[in-house]
Design brief:
0% strand; globular
Length: 125
């Protein structure tokens, strides 16, 4: 797993699993869904820039750092399993992976954001 992918996945996981941490930040996070990034690198850079504007002792920063470290550790452990024939590096189609990482983050934000909640349908009888 690339560092960019780990960044995106750690941030998306944090939003999914601890959405309460973001209660004051949903309008800022909505920007991630409005203008898709061209690459995982660009998206990871946007995430890192957003995190840097938070207080260093923020719970979001702390929990993100923990998740990123765990993903990096898992990635290093799995590195030897990502080998193909004759120990050549296996790499999935990068375009699909980039799209999936972008979608992963957008879905996490939209699913957990109170700003994205649809009003209940009118039940007129």
């Amino acid at each position: 797993m690339s560092g960019y992918t780990a960044t995106i996945q750690a941030f998306s996981d944090l939003i999914e699993q601890e959405s309460g941490l973001f209660s004051e930040h949903w309008s800022e996070l909505k920007a991630f869904t409005e203008k898709p990034s061209d690459s995982d690198e660009e998206l990871a850079d946007k995430i890192e820039a957003w995190l840097q504007q938070l207080s260093p002792d923020s719970k979001i920063v702390e929990r993100y750092t923990d998740r990123l470290a765990a993903k990096s550790l898992l990635s290093a452990t799995d590195l030897s399993r990502d080998r193909g024939l004759e120990k050549s590096k296996y790499s999935p189609k990068s375009g699909k992976a980039k799209q999936n990482n972008q979608v992963l983050l957008i879905n996490a934000i939209e699913k957990n954001s109170p700003l994205s909640a649809s009003p209940p349908p009118n039940s007129q009888v």
